[in-house]
Specification:
The chain is α/β, with parallel strands linked by helices. The chain has 10 helices and 10 strands. The protein has a 10-stranded mixed beta sheet with strand order 3-2-1-4-5-10-9-6-7-8, sandwiched between helices. Strand 7, helix 7 and strand 8 form a beta-alpha-beta unit.
C-alpha cells in the first residue's frame, strides 16, 4: 500500500527547557522525516499567577514578578528557536499565554490546523503542571491527530501496530488517521477487550474487512477484562506483543466525565509503554 504521508504541519508544546522535554526531540525527528513545518508552542510564564496574587502586594513586587516572567518566557522562546536552528528544521516558536487559566483551549486554537500534535509528560511521575490540560485541548479543541510519545522515541516508523478497538466513533477516527502507517506496518493486530457479540457477528470482523480492502492484513485478538482496568490491559498486551505503536480513540466520554472518572485513555497514558496515536 503506497500512501503519501499527510504530516506536513506538526505542533508540539514545551513548558520548560528543551532538554527536559523529551517529546520535543520526537517532534523534531518526525518533522525531519516528513519534511514538515514544526511549530513549537512554549508555556508563557506571563500566564503564571504570582503566589501573592490574592493577598496584599506592592506595585513594585507585581512589576518584578511580571518582568521575571517576561524574561523567563523570552529565554524559553530563544532556547526553542535554537533547537530549530541547530536541527535545521523549518518552523516557528509561539508563546502560549492563557490569562484566564485555560491553557488547553489556547493550545487547541493554536494547533487547530495541524496535521499532527506531538506531546508527552501528561500524566504519571514527573508530569508537567500544564501538560494534562494541553493534552485535553489537543483532543477536544482541535481536529488534529495526536501522538503521545514516551521518552526515547525517535522517528515514526512503526512495524508492529496494535489497534485498541471498541467499536467507538473515536476509535474509528483514530484508525482512519493511522491508515498511512498501518499500510506500511508488517504486523497489525486488532485488540478487543470483552467485546459484545451477536449470534451472526464476529468481533472486529468489520474493521478487519475495511483494512483488507486497503491491502492491510490484520489479526483479531480478544481478551477478557477480568478485574483489571482497560488501560492497564492495553498497555500489558502492547508490551507482550512487542508493539511499537498503539492506535486508540481518545476519551470516549465528555471532557468532564473523563476528568472526574478517569478512563482507559488516562490509565494507558500514565504508563505510556509505547507511543500511541489518538483521535477524539
Amino acid at each position: 500500500m503506497d500512501v503519501v504521508m499527510p504530516y506536513k504541519s506538526i505542533v508540539t508544546y514545551i513548558e520548560d527547557k528543551p532538554d527536559t522535554q523529551p517529546w520535543l526531540k520526537t517532534a523534531v525527528e518526525i518533522a525531519r522525516q516528513y519534511s514538515a513545518h514544526l511549530t513549537i508552542a512554549v508555556h508563557s510564564r506571563l500566564a503564571d499567577h504570582p503566589p501573592f496574587i490574592y493577598g496584599d502586594a506592592s506595585g513594585m513586587a507585581v512589576a518584578e514578578f511580571i518582568e521575571e516572567s517576561k524574561q523567563a518566557t523570552e529565554a524559553l522562546v530563544a532556547a526553542a528557536r535554537e533547537v530549530l536552528l541547530a536541527e535545521d528544521i523549518l518552523g516557528e516558536v509561539c508563546p502560549v499565554a492563557y490569562p484566564y487559566g485555560a491553557p488547553g483551549y489556547e493550545f487547541g486554537r493554536l494547533a487547530q490546523f495541524a496535521d499532527l500534535i506531538v506531546l508527552g509528560g501528561m500524566y504519571g511521575a514527573g508530569a508537567g503542571k500544564t501538560m494534562a490540560e494541553v493534552f485535553s485541548g489537543a483532543l477536544f479543541d482541535c481536529d488534529a491527530t495526536l501522538l503521545a510519545a514516551p521518552s526515547g522515541m525517535g522517528a515514526l516508523r512503526p512495524d508492529n501496530i496494535l489497534i485498541a478497538w471498541n467499536d467507538s466513533r473515536e476509535a474509528l477516527r483514530a484508525v482512519r488517521r493511522a491508515m498511512p502507517l498501518l499500510g506500511k506496518a508488517g504486523t497489525v493486530t486488532i485488540l478487543m477487550i470483552d467485546p459484545s457479540t451477536r449470534a451472526d457477528d464476529m468481533p472486529g470482523a468489520e474493521l478487519a474487512t475495511m483494512l483488507d480492502r486497503y491491502g492491510i492484513k490484520a489479526e483479531i485478538s480478544t481478551i477478557p477484562r477480568g478485574n483489571q482496568p482497560v488501560g492497564d490491559l492495553i498497555a500489558q498486551r502492547a508490551q507482550e506483543a512487542g508493539a511499537d505503536l498503539v492506535v486508540m480513540g481518545g476519551y470516549g466520554h465528555s471532557r468532564f466525565q473523563e476528568y472526574v472518572l478517569g478512563g482507559a485513555t488516562r490509565d494507558f497514558l500514565k504508563q505510556l509503554p509505547v507511543p500511541v496515536l489518538m483521535a477524539h
